């Protein structure tokens, strides 16, 4: 069997069902990496509302909310958030892949595509990311697409009942 084709595109309202299916199924698996969310977040209605907010932020130039596709099927998300224009021209990279599709290179390929989008379509100069110190799989993805670690943010995010340190990552896009 050949490698599945990975792609990214802007999230659409019709993606709510697929995203909620992945998020509900993977809720426990992602709990150590993601902040707690109310139960409604994991439903199609909750994802539909979230998509609406993300698309509003996209229209304001604050985010580029994408989905990750494997052979045309939604398997996760890849997003540029916290976009700052002007002299900074930077954004923060985030991604997740549903557990049945992990360890197949989708996160790496989606992150590379996201960086291309940041440079070419969004005209950004700098990409940033953060991972928890223990999130070695995500760190491997970031290294594979060219990011370098540059510091530790102590008590950076409240996840799974405690404040967690974050490893900060950077990549200059050349624009």
Can you walk through the features of this model?
The protein is an alpha+beta fold and about 180 residues long. The protein has one domain: Gcn5-related N-acetyltransferase (GNAT) (Aminopeptidase), CATH 3.40.630. Helices cover about 30% and strands about 35% of the residues. Strands 1-2-3-4-5-7-6 form a 7-stranded mixed β-sheet, sandwiched between helices. α1 (about 15-25) packs across α3. The model has no long low-confidence stretch (mean pLDDT about 95).
List the helices and strands and how they pair.
Elements: E1 6-10, H1 16-25, H2 27-30, H3 44-59, E2 64-70, E3 73-84, E4 90-97, H4 106-120, E5 126-132, H5 136-144, E6 148-159, E7 162-172
Helix pairs in contact: 1-3
Give the tags:
175 residues; alpha+beta; Aminopeptidase; seven-stranded mixed sheet; 5 helices; 7 strands; globular
Low-confidence stretches: none
The profile of the biggest β sheet is: 7 strands, mixed
Largest sheet strand order: 1-2-3-4-5-7-6
Secondary structure tally: strands: 7
Assign the structural class, choosing from mainly alpha, mainly beta, alpha/beta, alpha+beta, or little secondary structure.
alpha+beta
The coarse silhouette is globular
Q: Report the portion of residues in β strands.
A: 35-45%
Radius of gyration: 16 Å
Q: How would you describe the oligomerization state of the chains in this entry?
A: single chain
Under the CATH scheme, which architecture would be assigned? 3-Layer(aba) Sandwich
Tally of domains:
1
Total helical elements: 5
CATH class bucket: Alpha Beta
């Amino acid at each position: 069997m050949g490698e599945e084709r990975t792609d990214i595109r802007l999230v659409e309202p019709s993606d709510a069902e697929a995203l909620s299916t992945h998020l509900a199924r993977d809720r426990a698996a992602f709990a150590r990496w993601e902040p707690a969310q109310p139960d409604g977040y994991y439903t199609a209605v909750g994802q539909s509302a979230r998509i609406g907010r993300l698309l509003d932020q996209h229209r304001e130039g604050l985010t580029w909310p994408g989905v990750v596709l494997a052979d045309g099927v939604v398997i996760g998300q890849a997003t540029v958030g916290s976009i700052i224009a002007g002299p900074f021209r930077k954004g923060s990279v985030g991604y997740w892949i549903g557990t049945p599709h992990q360890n197949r290179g989708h996160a790496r390929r989606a992150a590379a595509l996201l960086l291309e989008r940041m440079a070419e379509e969004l005209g950004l100069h700098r990409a940033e990311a953060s991972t928890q110190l223990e999130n070695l799989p995500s760190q491997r993805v970031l290294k594979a697409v060219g990011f370098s670690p540059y510091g530790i943010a102590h008590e950076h995010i409240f996840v799974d009942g405690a404040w967690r340190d974050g490893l900060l990552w950077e990549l200059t896009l050349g624009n």
